Fold each of these.
Amino acid sequence: MFKCEDCHETTSLYNSCGDRHCPVCSGSKRVDFNEKAAKLIIDGVVYYQVVMTLPGELSELALSNRELLGGLLPKSAWSSLDRSIRTEQGYEAAAISVLHTWNQQLMHHWHVHLLVPGAGPSVEGDRWVAATPPTGSRNGHGFYLVDADTLRSRFRKTLLRRLAQARAAGKLKLTGQHAYLQDDDNWTAFVNGLASKTWVAYIQPPPTTESKAHHVVNYLTRYLTGGPISDHRIVSANRQSVTFLAREGKQVGGQRTQVPITISTKEFTQRWSEHIQPDYLTKVRYFGGWSNSKVGQYLQRCHDLSSATTSETAAEPDPPDADRQQVDLVCESCGSDRMVLQSESSKPSWRELLGYGSSASPPWYADIRDESDRIFWDGLMGEGFNAWYLETLIESAKEAEAQPPQPIQLHLPGFSPPEPYLLNSF
């Protein structure tokens, strides 16, 4: 807690949880991501955002195969996009991909965003190639990357083929509601159903014709980093329910009005928690010319062939805004930066926050947990069992605290002291 030397009001600066899904703690990560991406940008090149999405059936299957689908999705998306660019445009592509598993309502919606340059070194020879629409194209806005229908088809075929290979190798977990897919006939019918659908592969050009390369990076940085929901979308929250803003409808890539959605606090917590990715799952990947093994040589070729200014000149950082993490602490009351530390406390552990009987446990969480336990144990052992069990535990704990620690005798083989050595038990 800090105290302002000007108005004497206090301001709390809470501990950072440091989690990569937290919307509050990801400010520095946004800056790091922006700086790294900005170094890849060449002025004068048009950059596109490409979004590829798994069908709902595979988003559900991904819940029990997070690592597998978390790798297959971006790799299949990149493979399809790279092939389309090489075939249709004839230049070596590059991409940054970011994995998302949610939609605005926090439901399962596995998709990947890719930042892709619309130009690059030619596949054959040493010349600079920019993406152009094919002859006879009705494209009128001046932006074109590849044919979206062909890209969708390639993405679908590539991912389904790799998914089948994973199943044949025993890497795909088919349990619970998906256990029926262990049968070959059921699997064939499942895949045929997915193959008959039109998958989403949306190509988004820069926001405006005046947009510079670093504007696109800044836009994507604010959008792609952080967790499933930002705190400014939460309208209200209490022990019973949470109301947040989310878009409705299924219009791909369009602008949709956000509406308030209210669900129970338990349901909100469950939805959010299902998008917590394990540490071993890579969220951000670099492909093609931007991969770690190729980026140096690739950028040098791009600069030489395009005769453009360097990325350091092109990607000047924007001034701090509401989306950036502010380092300096200011008073919430008067705005002064003359803040003096008054007190501080260490960050509690998750065991302390969520443990039974912990005074630090959030009341809404403790109430939901205790009620769930009561329903489960009373249903299993009979009405009133849970209350009796908790009371027994409390009484046993009180009795144990009232008893003084009993000494124990230390026995050492081959050594017989005149009197036994006693140690107090812990």
Amino acid sequence: MRRSNIIYWHRELGDAGLTHIDLVHWGFNLHDYYHQNGGEARVQRILASARGALEPKGILAVSDHIGVAGMNNRKLHRVEIAHIVNQIEQAGFRIEARSDLLANPEDDHSLNVFDDAIYRQTDRVLIRAVRILNRP
């Protein structure tokens, strides 16, 4: 069912020109930016852009494929939850909740997320955060 008050708008970083947004969802590719050249700095630029577009009580939702320490998470297209949380908090957000809605205890975290054995069934995390209001 299409809602009249919801708009899906996909734009490149810095190209959207949006403000007063209630919700920003960054889904299943934070790991790509985190593991590429410029990693944490690139993630911070994206999160700063999201933070700047959000209303004072706006929500940031981040979902991604869970990686574990000691694995080649870059190759597996995964990221450790601690890295996600650290990046979100560093960007001026406060974690409100972490959901296991997308969890899959059968995923042993050793397969690439595109492997047929686990594709679209990875162990994933969903994090809800809000802007810290007293930060610029």
